[in-house]
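Quick one: C-alpha cells for this chain, please?
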Amino acid sequence: GKSISKDGYTLTLDNVAADDNFVHVFYTVTSENEPFYNNSDNNAPIWSNSLNVSADIQCVINGKLSDVSNNNHESGYFVDQHTYKCAEKYNVSGYNIPNKFNLELLNGQYDGITDDDKNSVWYISTDIDKSKVKVSSITKDINLKLPNSDATVEKAVFSPFGNQLVISTPSTGDPDNVIANIDSFALYDENDTCLDILNSDLSVNGDGSSRNSLEFLKANKD
C-alpha cells in the first residue's frame, strides 16, 4: 500500500509474498497525464524521457540488489493507458535472509544512494516478516560434490513457493567451461522418482566461479 509520486507518475507497492526460496513483489505504476502506449498499438509504450517502468525498478533486500542471482522472473501488463501492473519473482535461496528483512523499491541506481537521492527518485522502503511462512520451509545443508565435477551442491531449500538446489563452483579462470558442470546431472528422490529440474538460466562470474539455484518439481518437504 505504500506509494510515492514524482513528475506525474506514482509507484505503489501492492503486496509482497516471501519464503526461503523466493520473494514476490507486486507493484503498480500509474501515469497522471502521459499515456503508456499508443491507441493504435498497445505494444508500443510511450515512456517519459527517463522512465522505463519495468526495467528501471530496482528491488533491494537488506541492502543487496535482488536480481544478481539466477532464476528471477518478471511479468507485467497494462490495465489501461495509464496503469501498469508488474509482478517480480526474486530468487533468494542463496541469500539466507532472516525472517524479518527490509525491502526497498526505487527507480535508478542503488549503489551509493544517499538520503537526498532517495528524495529525488521513486523510493519505497518497508519491513517484511516471513516467519509465518517459515514453518512450512526446510533447508538441508548438503555440501557434496556433483559426480565428475568441481560443482558443489550446497543445500536444498523446500518452501511453499518452490524447491531449489543451490550449486556453486570454485574460481577456474575459465568461465566458458563452467556451465556444463553445473546442471549435468539427474535428480531422484528416495523412491527412484526422477524430479524435473527447471533450468531457466545460469550465471557465471568473470573468474569462473558461480552460485546458481536450480528449481525442481515433484518433491515435497517430506
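Residues 158 and 222 are 9 Å apart (CA to CA).
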